[in-house]
Each structure stands twice: as structure tokens, then as C-alpha cells.
Amino acid sequence: MNVFTASANKAVYPDVAVVCGHPEFNDQKQRSITNPLLILEVLSKPSRQKESPQNCSYTFERQVLSI
To answer: Which secondary structure element, helix H or strand E, spans residue 50, and what is its range?
Structure first.
């Protein structure tokens, strides 16, 4: 399963994505979740520069409704 980010209009495949409650999808085939609570990417030493946050071509945006 992948995570869709509207800011980059693309889906990405993080190592772990956690959803609290029911997942929300951006399509009827339910392939891409749009409401992850936590996203984890595991970086190995060789892949750190390639996959570092500074080199990512996408960003995730989250709006906090209430705390």
C-alpha cells in the first residue's frame, strides 16, 4: 500500500505508514492512503544521501485540527 501526497500529486512507498482509525483513500480501488498519522523511512548507510529528506522530491503536509 502506498501513501498519496497531494502537495506533490504523487504516491510514495514508505517503509511504514500508520493510520489511526479508518484509512482514507484517494481512489475507489483503495490503493493510496491519504491520512497517515506516522510515516517511517528506514535509511541504510549507503542510501542515506540518496533518500535523505533534503533530497526527497515530495513533502507531507499535516493540518492539526485540535490537540
So the answer is: helix 48-51
